[in-house]
Predict the structure.
Amino acid sequence: MTPLLSALMAPLVWAGSDTTAAPKDSLAVAPPRLERTVVLDGVLDEEPWTQAVRLAGFWQYSPDDGRPALDSTEVLVWYSPTDIYFGIRAYESHGPVHATLADRDKIASDDHIQIFLSTYNDRRRAMVFGVNPLGVQADGTLFEGAGVGRDGVDLSPDFVFESKGRVTATGYEVEIRIPFKSLRYQPLHRQDWGINVVRRIQHSGHETTWTPARRAAASFLAQSGTLVGLTDIRAGLVLDVTPVVTTKIVGARAGDGWDYTGGSPEFGGTLRWGVTPNLALNATVNPDFSQVESDASQVVTDPRVALFFPEKRPFFLDGIEEFSTPNRLVYTRRVAAPEVAIKLTGKISGTSVALLSALDDPATSASGSDRPLYNILRVQRDVGRESRLGMVFTDREDGEDFNRVVGLDGRVVLGEVYSVRLQAAGSATRRAGVVTEAPLWQASVGRAGRTLGFRYALNAIHPDFRASSGFISRPGIVQGTVNHRIALYGKPGALAERWSGSITLDGTWQYHDFVRGDASQDRKLHVNSDWILRGGWEVGGAVFVESFGYDERLYADYAIERQTGAVVDTVPFVGTPRLPNLDFVLRVTTPEFRHVSARLFYLWGKDENFFEWASADIVFATANLAWRPTPRVRMEGSYALQQYRRQTDGTLVGRTQIPRLKFEYQLSRALFLRLVGEYTASQQDDLRDDSRTGDPLLIRDASGVYRLARATTDSRFRADVLASYQPSPGTVFYAGYGSTLGEPEAFRFRGLRRHDDAFFAKLSYLIRL
């Protein structure tokens, strides 16, 4: 062992126990009810704060747990009949406070606090309210079982609350007021709510929690404390009305001129009614679905897997966590352009209910004249302390055709660290009068140990299974996964604060091959190693040993052009039966320094070339650099590269490059200006049967004619500018312009020619009655 490696490893110790002593008697607190209010200015100097209950004695959670926090934090809590108040004193004596003005939900690079409120006290879901030292907000939901612990927080939903903060000589202070109108809770005179508070300290890279939460646990929320004895809280009438007007002008090149369409204003609106404190009814007519922020570009690494884009539309985001299901059997973006929709979500006596009905635009139907009707029902029932059972039903009616899915699923937590997830579903699809039925099923078991953990999973989807209201990334396969992981922790002050390693075995079968007991098509062995170093540095590496089998379905439209003398024949493309892979990975993430941070991912080695189904030398790389020169200015540059070179002669098969630059200027907390420039350059060589004959490849087009797969290039530059004013969720004004330009040769920036452009504007105003 080298001296450097010995020095790095010496401070690491085995964590011999998955338990940490917790002072549970101090985790139930009773905040006072005061008939008072305060002016939110970030200064905790008003009299109600002297009567508030105090949450203190924070514990380190990441990268290691079970130790008292190095930086002291106090959270003061009290409530009035209509609001709950939080006051935060975050002391900082070891490094600078990171604080910038930022757009909503963009505070990850700052020091920040997150408050997890489990208002049903079920320790399975929580509303999350985050603030940075200047009071900039980030909010969302955590529904455990949908993600991985705290990493499953969904920041898409927005809630109405107030916050103000300031940096002080000893750290920072923040005041928060959350109206009961913005919360859902039990319809009881006396309330008990689960609560935990997480603090992120950027100069050290540490996270601390109010409760001594353990990493060796299947649930983060189950380790929360409790706000007890909340009495006579009153939300009053909960009725939010949001009228919306949008306009969009789209231009496209028509010969030597331009053709512009649109420009007329479109009116719509949404309504949210709190039927009871725990049930909300949402309705919308001609809702706003203008694309304020476009989907981020993604590079396709496996053409058999569909790309997933998250939901961003406000109507669907409210209560979206209630629709979560394994295998994404509910995916609201399938409702492309609804004319009218209604939704009921909430929780009654331990049972969560979510119902959505929507009538889509005729343009989304197969005939072009029918209006597809969606009906989605999701029901989940709490079982025991942390377990859950669920049912889902989805129905899409399109004229005489339909797709219906019924499924049952459950998550069982055993012994605090073990969890079991099961799912079984079936689909019935009618097309052209023929009904096809097919199953989906899943089973997994895992252990969330502090030192040792594992996960065994098997997921199967029949080729005929359809989920027209969901998202199935790759149907017709069975995937089995075995993962074992280990973690070692450094002593206080060590250079290495945590090391983790894992070994993953993964097999993929065609569904019918698995049923017959045949061998897997794709086989993977991944070995990962990751270090978290003092100060927040993260360094990791991996080795991928893989073997991919020929997929006949992917190449069903491929053929080979073979010339024998003067005779040219078209012969079937059969492909090499199996391709071996060996890849290496390097990952580096810097700390969130006060003004700059960076990330690098670099993968290289021998992998399959899906263009020709042959082995290739590949490079997949992404690099990100964020620069914050002032508290109001943010710049972020990124670069993505995907490259394939033939192993036979080193020639280039395909390459995609995506450099992107984003500039944001935050004039105030509510007002910002954003400029984005993104260049996409793709090129592909003439394709050939590189692994076998070397003959040219043919691909059958939509008309059934085989054509030579000739070299192609595509060079596009996209520029977007957006001005946004959002004083609170629901009340917003957007104005933006975007344009796409192309050029014959990549990155020449000569002869750029505009292909299309668009201008859009949106104005909405939240009326809270």
Observations:
- The first strand starts at residue 12 and ends at 13.
- The helical segments are 3-9, 47-51, 314-317, 511-516.
- The radius of gyration is 28 Å.
- The longest helix spans residues 3-9.
